[in-house]
Every structure is written in C-alpha cells, then in structure tokens.
Amino acid sequence: MAAWPLADGTAVGGLCREGDHTRERMANLTFLHSMMTRIEGIKPVAPARWRSYEGAVGVYWDAEGQAGAEGYYLSPDPRIVVFFNDVSSRIRIATCEGALGRADRPMTSALYVPAGMPLWTRFNAAHRFSHLDLHLHQDRLLRYLAPSLGGSKARAVLKRPVELQDLGPIESLARLMVDEVTTPSRHTVFAESLLGSIATGLLDVPVEHGERPNERLTQAQMNKLIARVASPGDRSMAVGEMAETVGLSESWFATVFRRTTGKSPLKWQLGRRIEAVQSLLLESDLSIADIAAQLGFSDQAHLTKMFRQTVGETPAAWRRFNRES
User: Fold this and answer.
1) Range of the domain at 225
2) pLDDT digits over 210-225, tens only?
3) Residue ending a domain, choose from 164, 181, 202
C-alpha cells in the first residue's frame, strides 16, 4: 500500500510507470527504495509529497479509489503505512494470493509490512483517503532495536507483520512526520527521531523476562482481542472476559488498555462492532434487524442507538448515503 501512481502513468513525485508495474525510486547516499505495484481504479488527487532521510523515505499521499479498485504491492524493504481516516469499512486486505473475497480482512489504520511480504487490496466502496508511507532500510530499523533486544531478536521482530486499528500516540507522531515531509521546518534529526518512534511504537516488541510489567498491551495481545471480537457469538464481551483473553487481571487490563488505545475497553469494543455493522451495511442486503441479531445487539433499536452515538446518524441513513456515493 505504498504507491498510488496516476492511472495514465504520468510520473508523480519520483514515480514512473513501467507497463503494468510501478517502480518508486527515491534515493539519497545510503538508500534506494523500490516497490513493484499493480493497481486499477486508484489514483492520487494531489501530487505526492516526499522527503529522503538516512536509510528512509517518507511519502504523503491524498488519494481515492473506486468501488472494486484493486492493488498489489511488493517491496524488498520494510515499510509502514499510517492512514488518517477510517478505511476499515472500505478496503479489504490479504497477504495470500487469491484470498481477496474469501479470506481477506479489513484494512487497519496502520500496517507494518516486513520486507518481501506481498499485499493485495480491494475497495468495496468508493473512498478518498490520505496516508503516510515510510519506506525503511532494514539496517536502519535494526539500529533502533538491536541495542535493546540484541541482533537475533531484533531481526525476528522485523519479520513479524503488524496491523493496528487504534493508533493512540502513533497518530500524533505520524501527523508530525507528515508536517516534516510536506513543509519541513526543523532540522532533519527531528524527523529521523520521529521515524524511530513511529517504528518502535508500531512493531511487535515482546516484553523480556524480569522487565517491569508492560504498561501497554502488545500487538499480539491486541490481535487476540480483535480476533475474539470478530468471532461469531463473541461480539459483546465483559471487561473481565477481555482481560482473560490476554492473560491479565481485570483491574490491570483496564489500566493498560486505556494507555494503549486511549479508550475504555467497552468503548473500543463498541467501535469494533460498529465497524462490523458498517461492513454488513455496505456489503450485504441484510435488514438492520438481521444485522443487529447477527452481531449481538439486543434488537434493532439498540443497534440504531449505539450506531447513532458512534457515527452520528442512523444505520439506514449511513447505508443510503454510502451506497449512493
């Protein structure tokens, strides 16, 4: 999800079209980044803004995709993508060929994509979005991690993909990074420190034996909660059940969960359930009452009340507007 060339192949911000493939070439003395992409139905709505750093390239995109638009992305370098508006109800993602439509999942607000891992994406509705792409030399990431973890553990961390929906402080760091990419106002060292903070905040770095108990949930723990909420029949969990899922006491879980996501466990869970409602409103013809029953709401009135509190309008109005747009 790192490049959005113009549909007609025009070069934009260091991108050049080569038949059905797009190759990014953004370089300084120490880093040459390249990415192979195949896209259809996706285009930028403004020129890309980018800036090179030692061992890294930052790119800011404002783009849009048509309903049914698809993309394929493969890079020999690790990369981070941070979206600044919700894409979970509009874009599906898969990391195995042929999985779109049968074993895909919603795109999350941020991704860490290890070197050499392919991505396939598909839009289930037209959507405009903006995002920050950080293309990183693997040695640059190792320099951040190895002093604390050791070389072998750091390399293991860099092989683990991460998909994060609730960004917490990462969003603020990413927005500061966008400012430095688009309108740099400080010494390069500031942006390079942001790069390291974003990367280490997103990566799945385990807590070592004997360390102080983690004051934030790990990405692995968050993934367990996300999978549990997404499982049929487990749409609504008490805080105690959520704590048990990740192996923590209820009181400590509530504390570290808020530090991790900036939300209470129940508010976060409601947000995930509303995202599932939005997906069904867009992708199915189920009635709102049927969606309420399928996703564990007590009835249609309960779903409508929760949806309005979260989204600002009724499910029927949201479905009508988004299907017409």
Assistant:
1) 212-325
2) 444 557 888 888 888 8
3) 202
Torsion of CA 150, 155, 161, 164, to 10 degrees: 30
**Helical ranges in the chain per DSSP H:** 138-149, 151-158, 169-182, 188-202, 219-230, 239-245, 250-261, 265-283, 288-294, 300-311, 315-324
CATH of the domain at 142: 2.60.120.10
Choose among 164, 278, 169, 281: nearest CA to 225: 164
Q: Which two tokens stand for residue 221?
A: 């723990």
Q: Determine which helix (DSSP H) or strand (DSSP E) holds 56, and give its type and residue range.
A: strand 56-74
**199 to 132, 160, 237: CA distances (angstroms):** 13, 13, 31
Contacts with 161 (C-beta within 8 Å, 6 or more apart), sequence order: 95, 111, 112, 113, 114, 117
Q: What is the pTM of this model?
A: 0.61
Q: What is the pLDDT of residues 21-34, one digit of tens each?
A: 333 333 334 566 67
For residue 2, being part of any structural domain is answered with: no
Q: What pLDDT, on the 0 to 100 scale, is given for residue 135?
A: 93
Clarify whether residues 82 and 59 are in a common domain.
yes
